Amino acid sequence: MTNQTTMLREIIEEHSDRIKNMKKYYPYFRLAETSLAQYRDGQFACLDMGYITLAVIRFFIEENNFKEKDVTYQEYYAFLKELLKRDFDLELEREEEQDLIAFLFDKLKNEGKPFSFDYYDPTDHKRKTMRSRFMDSKIEDGVVYYYITSDAIEFYLDTKEIKDESTINVEQLLLEKLISTQNFRGGTEVAKRINNEVGRLMRQKNEVLGILSYDVFAGVEAFEKFMGSTMRWFKEEQKLFVRNSDLIHKALERAESDGAQGDYQSRYYQAIDEIYQLELELKKAIARHSELLGACTVLQKKVGELVAKSKFAALKRSLDFKRMGQRLMERDRADLLEALVMPLFDVHPGKTLTLGRLEDLLMVSPEKTENAEAVSEGEEQIYIYEDEIEDARIQKNYILLFENLLQTLERKESFTLKEWQEQLLFQLGEQVVRNADYYSFLVHLAQKKEYNVRKMIEKPDTFLEEAVKVFLEEHKEYEEVDMTLTMLPEEELLLGEKMSVTNLLIERGN
Amino acid sequence: MENRNLEKALELISDLIQGEENPVLYEEYISNSEVYRLTSMIAKKLGLSIYEYQNHLYMTSGEHNRVFGFTNEELKKAIGVRLNRELYLCYYIIYTIMMQFYQDSATYSYIEYVKIDDVIRAVDQGLAAVISQIEVLVLSEIEENSFRTLALMWEDLPMITTEESTVRRAARNSKIGYVKMVVNFMVNQRLLLEAEERYYPTERFRALIENYYTEHQGRLYELLNGKEES
């Protein structure tokens, strides 16, 4: 809701202000549209009224404001004659020329009338007319003089979209015009703009400094351009500042004297606050302008030094950091940046050396050329540790015994450990029962009462199962084998001479 | 060779290693040719370089001095980073700061100081070309020492973390934090001076840039152009 209200207020209440701001452009577009196609059978259709308008405004600014004089028709005539010849290559007969220049003059001053356009004021619900003119005239001692209006100056200022030149002068001229027409509030706005312009130039100065810092040639070019568009106006600008200050003082004096005389209706007296405000802004602008002047002088000095330094540097050997950085990027080796930054770091001794130690270092005469420590190329060795050898042996024996057990189980549905051992003795000889692996095999085997080969492969539970897993995976024929073990505690079985185990009944499962 | 002169030379070197300065010894170095010769010789044997600049002496151990230089690990600890790629990013920031003041070893700029924001902008610009290539990259193919790794790290850092809104802290979690960490290190290394978050180059910084790199430029060109690998 609030947004809606704000929007409507802007649309309705501010409409007139916006139109007023646009009025300074209106004469230009009317003039630029003027076609000379109908004039003298289109003989001068090549003339561009837009260009002529801007040129004439600039000429008037020069005469009226810089040279502080009004313009007579003859002066305007001379300027335009030159322009037509220079810019449009027109070589005309005298009469023809007089007619054309008079025709253009009439157009420029709209035959003495202001350019007017209608607009609708939504606040008052009425159509209104806005009027604006670029040129005006006055008569003094029988001579008609022409001068430029504040609208024209303001318009001309706004056309400086590419801010390549100081606009302080033109702004000041406008300010002067506004003071003389007692538009102090407008004057304050202009003074603020001058302030901004000074700030912009200050920034531009810093930019020039930045360019100078990495490219002297580009920097000097930027510097010359900057100085060409700034410094050469300084004198003029300061003169205008003084003049405008005087005008403000006069206005203040007038306001005060009007007040003292009890003339409270005086425009000066009523606008006294605005005059003070304007004076304040202008003082600020003058101070900043002086600051800028100082900074520019310093810049000028620095440029001199930098150019001299650069000339010297051209002869001096140097390492181009920028190029080095680019090269490292091309090689994509960020780690090598180390070589560029490391020399800057402080000396960082890992150890502390005493003076005596330093002296010792001197006493040892190093070889003239140092040979790097020789590293012979060898083949990579694979080390097998004792326990790995043992593990392999145990696994091998377990597999042998377990395979034998399974084979026996294939042939017989059930048998005792004693029977199996006798069979082993027959197959492998007597030493089998003295083998520690056989004993440990039996100990591990007795840990479970049931064995299922498939489960042993999938999830080996015991050390024995783990050891024989590889064998079982490779011999799928045993996959379906189930086996149960039953202790026969009443029977002891001798292993060699000293050891004995309990007999077992080994049966094929279901 | 006079023993006294040798003592002076050793004492001078010892002072410089410890970051101290003795005006009397400086005078000796300038005016006594024997002390100058001995000091230069000892420094050279130790892989150190001494430069005289604006009436002061400055010392550096160059880029690969195992005794007097930093190791990677020591540097990481001193700056406050953990990984190599973080260290490389710090190198790049230091290089960028160097470039703010010097485009080459002979041309000093008139930039009086840098601010953290300037450095961030310069690093952004410097890595912009690399960042533009990142979209088409396969991340696993990037080497730790690649500029693309640096650019990715930099790109992924927020400008500032929420808790930093009032105070700018040195930390690895934001661009501002990173740069702050590096400038703090450079201040500790007597390369920069801080005044109200503006960083001014010290005389030591200027002395080393203007002398060391010019003197060793041939070797550095070879090293950085890859000749060391051939």
Tell me what you see in this structure.
- The complex is a heterodimer of chains A (510) and B (230).
- With 510 residues, chain A is of the alpha+beta class.
- Chain A folds into 3 domains: 13-159, no CATH class; 163-312, no CATH class; 389-508, no CATH class.
- Chain A has helices at residues 2-13, 15-22, 26-33, 49-66, 73-88, 94-108, 150-158, 168-180, 184-214, 216-260, 267-270, 272-315, 321-331, 337-341, 355-363, 386-411, 417-428, 431-434, 436-445, 453-458, 463-474; strands at residues 115-121, 126-132, 135-140, 143-148, 414-416, 450-452, 482-495, 499-508.
- In chain A, a hairpin with a 4-residue loop joins strand 1 (115-121) and strand 2.
- In chain A, helix 7 (150-158) runs antiparallel to helix 8 (168-180) and helix 9 packs antiparallel against helix 10 (216-260).
- The longest helix of chain A has 45 residues, at 216-260.
- Chain B folds into 2 domains: 3-60, no CATH class; 72-229, no CATH class.
- Helices cover 55% and strands 11% of the residues of chain B.
- Chain B contains 10 helices and 7 strands.
- Chain B has helices at residues 3-17, 23-31, 33-45, 72-79, 84-101, 116-133, 147-156, 175-188, 203-215, 217-224, and strands spanning 49-53, 56-60, 102-104, 107-108, 114-115, 192-195, 198-201.
- In chain B, the strands form 3 sheets. Chain B has a 3-stranded antiparallel beta sheet.
- Chain B is elongated and about 60 Å long.
- Chains A and B meet through helix 9, helix 12, helix 13, helix 14 and helix 15 of A and helix 1, helix 5, strand 3, strand 4 and helix 6 of B.
